[in-house]
Amino acid sequence: MNLSGKMSGRCGFTLIEMLIVLTMLAIVITVGAPSFSGFVKEGRVKSGAHALAVAIQTARIKSISANRRCYLDFAPGALTPADSFYTFWLDMDGDLSYDAGEIDSTNLALPDTKSGFRGFKLPKGVAFSNYAAATSTGPGGGAIPSGGVDFTNDQASFNSRGEGTAGSVYLLGENSSFYAITVSSLGAVRTWRWEDNTWK
């Protein structure tokens, strides 16, 4: 009986070949999973910083177009920066304080709600915070507050000319990525990342 003749006409994989491929696949997944997890965590804090920088620029543009002071509030009502939430509002009556209904006056799509306020939540694993283990000073050399928000009354505001209150907001990711968004008194917005023991 010629076994080699019968085997040469068959196609497919043997059980041993399949087990070898599955073992190699398991090794690749085991080695790659931690780096993929870090990539996802870095992506969350980076997207949170980008979204916040865009929100600050949107507040500036909204103040100019509405010809009213616009606020980006990191602690609306009884919330604090630790709640990782922020919202917009236009000062419709010019009293420099929030009144019911002023959030709706922005006509912006605010997808999240917290304690009755519509606004934006930071991504999962991202918080307004300082990162004392890395640095205690921000990009401009000032001290970083423990709550991560360095604006008077936890509010960035812009007047009808687009001039703003100077300050900074700091975001810390669960992977220890640390970002700062700074605003100048002229309304310029810049995003920074703490990397290699310096702000870049």
Key features?
200 residues, 2 helices, minor pseudopilin epsh fold, 5-stranded antiparallel beta sheet, alpha+beta, 11 strands
CATH top level is Alpha Beta
Instruction: Count the domains.
Output: 1
Give the mean pLDDT: 88
- Give the end-to-end Cα distance, rounded to a whole number of Å: 75 Å
Topology:
Layout: H1 3-7, H2 15-66, E1 70-73, E2 85-90, E3 112-114, E4 117-121, E5 126-128, E6 149-150, E7 155-158, E8 167-173, E9 178-183, E10 189-195, E11 198-199
Antiparallel strand pairs: 1-2, 1-7, 2-4, 3-4, 5-8, 6-8, 8-9, 9-10, 10-11
Précis, in short:
This protein is α+β, with helices and mostly antiparallel strands and 200 residues long. It has helices at residues 3-7, 15-66, and strands spanning 70-73, 85-90, 112-114, 117-121, 126-128, 149-150, 155-158, 167-173, 178-183, 189-195, 198-199. Strands 5, 6, 8, 9, 10 and 11 form a six-stranded antiparallel β-sheet that branches.
